[in-house]
């Protein structure tokens, strides 16, 4: 039994149309734009911060911090009077403003203490 030219064309047209719709709609776009920034502490230690900026209204801003040890942690954006604050509200705060950042950890007295001060390394120096 021969398949007609029309029936051979339908599946290709359907997939082509679906791909075009997908490319033009926001449902196929990534949920986050990722921006990678490298920071250096006063002691020379480097931390890479990958900022996850949502491309829709349904997601939260967050950052993934990558430490020299290979460990990483993701923190959600929290309230801040100035700058941008990311935290898990338990073990770590990453607070950025301008080209700098501070890391804070609990001090054991129901407060936070600064454990590191970092400066953003310009992109051409990141390598």
How would the blueprint of this fold be written?
Elements lengths: L4 H20 L7 E10 L4 E9 L7 E5 L5 E7 L5 E4 L5 E5 L2 E7 L5 E9 L7
Antiparallel strand pairs: 1-2, 1-8, 2-3, 3-4, 4-5, 5-6, 6-7, 7-8
Structure summarized in a few sentences:
The chain has 127 residues and is an alpha+beta fold.
Notes on the structure:
This protein is an alpha+beta fold. Mean pLDDT is 81; it is low at 9-26. A hairpin with a 5-residue loop joins β4 and β5 (84-87). Helices cover 16% and strands 44% of the residues. It has one helix and eight strands. It has one helix at residues 5-24; strands at 32-41, 46-54, 62-66, 72-78, 84-87, 93-97, 100-106, 112-120. It has an eight-stranded antiparallel barrel. It has a single domain (32-125), classed as Beta Barrel (Lipocalin).
Rg calculated over all Cα atoms: 23 Å
- Strand tally: 8
The CATH superfamily name is C-type lysozyme inhibitor
Low-confidence stretches: 9-26
Structural class: alpha+beta
Protein name: Lysozyme inhibitor
Signal peptide: 1-31
Domain C-type lysozyme inhibitor: 39-110
Pfam family, one: MliC
Relevant terms:
eight-stranded antiparallel β-barrel; 1 helix; globular; 127 residues; 8 strands; alpha+beta; signal; Lipocalin; membrane
């Amino acid at each position: 039994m021969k398949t007609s030219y029309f029936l051979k064309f339908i599946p290709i047209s359907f997939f082509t149309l679906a791909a075009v719709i997908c490319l033009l709609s926001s449902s196929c776009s990534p949920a986050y734009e990722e921006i990678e920034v490298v920071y250096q502490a006063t002691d020379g230690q480097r931390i890479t911060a990958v900022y996850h900026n949502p491309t829709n209204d349904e997601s939260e801003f967050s950052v993934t911090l990558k430490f020299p040890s290979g460990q990483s942690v993701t923190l959600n954006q929290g309230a801040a009077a100035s700058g941008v604050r990311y935290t898990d509200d338990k073990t770590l705060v990453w607070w950025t403003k301008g080209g700098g950042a501070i890391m804070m950890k609990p001090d054991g007295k129901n407060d936070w203490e600064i454990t590191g001060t970092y400066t953003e390394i310009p992109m051409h120096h990141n390598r």
